[in-house]
Write a structure and sequence with these properties.
By secondary structure, the chain is an all-alpha fold. The protein is built from 3 helices and no strands.
């Protein structure tokens, strides 16, 4: 996948990285459980969205390359993408 296509994904992952660092710091500081869980949930959503965006980009590439691939290859790619998608569910 082209880096330009995934620029927003990288930005989202960096944001999640900052949120996770914040969660660690909150735990080390003994912050309120509710605040920690709220931040953890935000980081989790960011990671999920990044994963879905990566899969969507893969699907887009698969659809544009469909004419070039043999039916067996298309089915194998579909199964792989489905497995990836379900791993995020």
């Amino acid at each position: 996948m082209a880096a330009e296509e995934l620029k927003t994904v990288v930005n989202r992952l960096r944001r999640a990285q900052g949120q996770i660092a914040g969660v660690i710091k909150m735990i080390e500081e003994g912050r309120d459980c509710e605040d920690v869980v709220t931040q953890l949930a935000a980081a989790s959503r960011a990671l999920d969205k990044a994963g879905f965006a990566i899969i969507a980009t893969g699907l887009q590439h698969c659809l544009t390359d469909t004419d070039m691939a043999a039916p067996e290859d298309r089915e194998q790619m579909r199964a792989r993408l489905e497995k990836l998608f379900l791993s995020l569910a």
